[in-house]
Amino acid sequence: MAHISSTKEIPVAGAIPKHIAIIMDGNGRWATKRFLPRVAGHVKGVEAVRGIVEACVSRGVSYLTLFAFSSENWRRPAEEVSLLMRLFVTALEKEVAKMHANNIRLKVVGDLTRFDAQLQKMIKKAETKTADNRGLTVTICANYGGRWDIVQAFNHLQEQLQAAGKAGQAINEDQLGAHLAMAYAPEPDLFIRTGGETRISNFLLWQLAYSELHFTDTFWPDFDAAALDAAILSYQARERRFGQTSAQVSKQSSRPESD
Ligand code: IPE
Ligand code: IPE
Ligand code: MG
Known about the structure:
By secondary structure, this protein is of the alpha/beta class.
């Protein structure tokens, strides 16, 4: 396993979250409120992404994961879906070189087979180009669903076990976790959902097991560095107990490093 699960390792209290995962919601309502077409909200939403990526770099966050398109979003009107796809292509064309120059590693996770061949190729190219960057890792979840992720992980693990002549063997959490789409990252410390809804909408179901949750009414296009700082501050004020008592946690966090 690349990372010890956050559910097993208690991060230092008050630290900047290593991994922030965001459901960027409220683009449509942001636009409607201004008597604009929903597309205007999505365009503004891309600008907000740029601002939050920069803010995460300057604050020393290591992983930023953004829910851009869910497995359920195909249910939207065809024009909105195709517009979102076009926006995705344009954003890749415009941003990848800049990201690379800033040492950002880009990953796109989800069932990419449903995207057209050109988009799939662009994604591969962008990932390869930025693969060795060691600054912020930005993950875009596209045609992603938490249930899809768990099922695909299970199927890949089964294939592996079968090849090793161990088909049907009972599996454990670490084995399954190693096949999840984001096995390269620790689990999110902080989950943010903008746009006022207080639901998970089939985002990272497995990985959010012990994340701190932050919900804000701010629509995604208005979510700026100050709003991110407010979310981080709220995170820093919390005590992550992972099942232990408060007394146990404070004893551990006051222990010297060498202990
Ligand atoms: C989030 O904003 C963007 C995507 C889901 C692609 P919405 O488009 O869901 O905006 P609202 O929720 O309708 O305001
Ligand atoms: C969740 O937003 C998915 C993304 C932000 C990509 P939705 O707006 O699609 O979520 P629901 O359907 O209202 O729960
Ligand atoms: Mg929405």
